Every structure is written in structure tokens, then in C-alpha cells.
Amino acid sequence: MRSLVFCVGVGLLAVACDGERTTAVAHVPESSAAGLQVPASSHNVSITASVGGRSAIGDSVTIHIHNDGPDAAYIPRCGSGPLLLVQTFMNGIWTGGIQNFMCVAPSAPGPVQLLPGASVDVVRVFQAGRYRITASVATASDLSNSVTAISNAFDAP
């Protein structure tokens, strides 16, 4: 039994370290020639990404999610935080819907709730490229009215 638990633990660790795990794939045309799209809020929830420090493993990016609306917003959960997907700008189109990290077991049941006026910051590390962040946002706790919010585009040198 111990060897089974050990093998499962090592397997989960290997998956957790896989930074390119694909969860969905979509091709979204870019609306501007430079590859910079105006962010799109959904249910009054906006996502803003800003490149911070640089390290040997990549650039640190802070992802700020803010609820400007009068209603609570709900975002699918990934571990203790919101599920964020990354799109990459390649060959003139946005491709993606990949996670750049593995979701650990949820710290609480259900989606992440973002009350009116509240915000949450998530920090991720990116390799060189042009990216944007997307998240499903709903005003119903069962996520039945989910729409996609899109961050500003950013470059990790």
C-alpha cells in the first residue's frame, strides 16, 4: 500500500511540475495588427496583467482581477484561487487556453467568489513571448451564465 501511495504521489508531483499542461484550445483572431487587444471585462469583472521582476526561470507577472459591478462574481476554482487560462499570440492569432501551472486540490468547495468592489491578485511566471489571460466569470454561483473576461496583452522578454 505504501508503494502505491508513493507512486501516486510522485505521479502527481510530475504532473504538477508540467508547466505546459493543455486544458483547452481555441484560435481567436487578433483585432489589431500589433497584437494588443483592449481588455474585455465580463459581468463587470476586469483582468489586468503587469510584468514585474525578472528571474532565471522567467518574468514575474501580477494578474489583478477586480469586480467593478454591483453583484458578486464567481470564477471557477483552481486550488485556493481562480482558474486562469493563458493565451499566446503566435502567427497573428491568439491561441490557447492553457494553464501555466497545475491546479492542486481545492481549498474550498465551489467557485471563487468575488464580492462587489473586491479584487484578487495572482502572481505567475512566464517565459519569453506575448500573452494574455482569460477567465470564465459568472454572476450565478452555479456558473450557468459564465462569459470570458480577457486581460490586456503583455510581453515577457
- How large a portion of the residues is in β-strands, by DSSP E? over 45%
Quote the CATH topology.
Answer: Immunoglobulin-like
On the 0 to 100 scale, the average pLDDT is 78
Weakly predicted, low-confidence segments: 1-36
- Helical content class: under 10%
Enumerate how many helices there are, as a single number: 1
Specify the CATH architecture: Sandwich
Structural class based on helices, strands and sheet pairing: mainly beta
N/C terminus separation: 47 Å
3D shape? globular
| SSE run | HEEEEEEEEEEEEE
Main sheet, how many strands, which sense, barrel?
6 strands, antiparallel
Count up the domains: 1
The CATH class designation is: Mainly Beta
Describe the fold and architecture.
The chain is 10% helix and 48% strand. The protein has 157 residues and is mainly beta. It has one domain (21-156): Immunoglobulin-like. Strand 2 (45-55) and strand 3 (58-67) form a beta hairpin. The protein is globular and about 40 Å long. Mean pLDDT is 78; it is low at 1-36.
Write a concise synopsis of the structure shown.
This protein has a single domain (21-156), classed as Immunoglobulin-like (Sandwich), CATH 2.60.40. The strands form four sheets. Strands 1, 7, 8, 11, 12 and 13 form a six-stranded antiparallel β-sheet that branches. It has a three-stranded antiparallel β-sheet with strand order 2-3-10, with no helix packed on it. It has one helix and 13 strands.
